[in-house]
Design brief:
By secondary structure, the chain is an all-alpha fold. The chain has 5 helices and no strands.
């Protein structure tokens, strides 16, 4: 099975990873559309894996946002912390106004 030399494959991979992200996204979109049209409804069983992947992405968003905020707040030096109003006051104002 000689599908091409190793240098040809390495050159193709280098081109792919050095190309613009937008080009890679559009290439994947077109490739996915062509495969979807050719294969059609015969590949419905893959839908459950896609749904699981999307659910996992949605599940990870909240912890990532929360811990990003915590790390950002913890990285503020105490000297700079005095320049900002207390966070609890802003929380109380937001809760009282809603």
């Amino acid at each position: 099975m000689n599908g091409g030399s190793a240098t040809e494959r390495k050159g193709l991979l280098n081109w792919y990873f050095k190309s613009n992200l937008l080009i890679r996204i559009l290439l994947g979109l077109m490739l996915g559309a062509v495969v979807g049209l050719l294969v059609g409804p015969g590949i419905v069983w893959v839908k459950s894996f896609g749904d699981l992947f999307i659910r996992l992405l949605k599940m990870i968003v909240m912890p990532v946002v929360f811990f990003s905020l915590v790390v950002g707040a913890a990285s503020i030096s105490p000297a700079r912390l005095g320049k900002y109003p207390p966070f609890g006051v802003w929380q109380g104002r937001g809760g009282a106004s809603s």
